[in-house]
User: Fold this.
Amino acid sequence: MSTQTSCTRRSFLRSAVVGPMVLPLLTASSYERDACADEAIQDVSLAGRIYKTLKLGMAKIDGSLEDKFRAVKQAGFAGIEMVTPGMDVEATRKAIAATGLIVDGTVISTHWSIRHSAADSGKRQVALEHLKESIRQTHAVGGHTTLLVVGHGKDGSTEEVWDRSLENIVQAVPLAAELGVVIAIENVWNHFLYEHQGDSNQSAEPFVRYVDQIDSPWVGMQFDIGNHWKYGTTGDWIRRLGRRIVKLDAKGFSRKRDTFTKIGEGDVDWADVRRALKEINFYGWCAAEVDGGDAKRLREISSNLDHVFRLQST
Assistant:
C-alpha cells in the first residue's frame, strides 16, 4: 500500500466519522494534513533489527581476500556472503580473524546450471552434493545460511519442478540441522512459484505452500525485496511469509521502467516494507545485491541501506 493511497483513504474515513461534528471547524485540507501526519508517525526505523551484509562479488577491491574484507567492513557492513561450493575455507578464516568481518552466509554458485529440478536424476544428485558441501563450508566459517535457487520452471510442469526439487532438497535438511545452517530459498526470476508474464498483484501463497511442505526450521526464505516488486506488493508478501523469512536481499526496482535500480531508487514502497518487517518482528541480516565497485561505491551501498531501513538518524 502506498503512503499516498493510505493517506487518502485515512482522510476519507476521518471525515466520514467525525465530519458531522467538526465540519464547521475543519477544512478538507486539515483532514488531509492530519491523516498524513498520522501516516508519518507510523513510519518506523529498523535500527537494531537489520544487520548489513553483501555478496562477495560486489567488492571490486584489488588485493587479497583480507583486503576485500577490510574494505567491506570500513564501508559499514557487518558481514559478507561467500560463494560455495569451492570456497577457500582456510583463507576465509584468516580474513575473518584479521578483520573481524563476519561471514554470515553463502550463496551456491551452481544452482542455476545444476538444478534440483532437472529431469536428469544425475544432475539432481550433483545439485544435492553441492548443497550439502555448501552447508559444510558455511558451517566451517561460522555462517548460518546458504542461499538456494530451488530450480527452474523450464525443467517441466509446475508439479514436476515442485516434486523433483522438494524430493532433492529435503535430503539435505538433516545435515543442515546437524550443523545449524539454514537453507535459505530465494524468490528469484526462475519462472517457478509465480507467473513470470503475470501482473503485479500476484500472491506469495505458492512460496508459503512450498516452504511449509518441507516443514523444517532449517528451511526458510531469503526474501528479495526488489525481485518481486514486479509481481506483487512487497509489504504484503513479507506479512504473508512472516516467520518463514530468515534473511533479506535488497535491490531496487522500477515498475515504471521495468528494470532493477540502485537501492532506494525506483518505486519500491520502502515505507511499507519497513512497517511489514516490524509487524512480523524481523531481526536479521539483509544482503545488498546490486552492482558493486570500489570502496566509494561500497560506502554508497551501505548508506543506501541505512536510508531505506532508517538505520541512522538523519
The CA atoms of residues 193 and 206 lie 5 Å apart. DSSP finds eleven helices and ten strands in the chain.
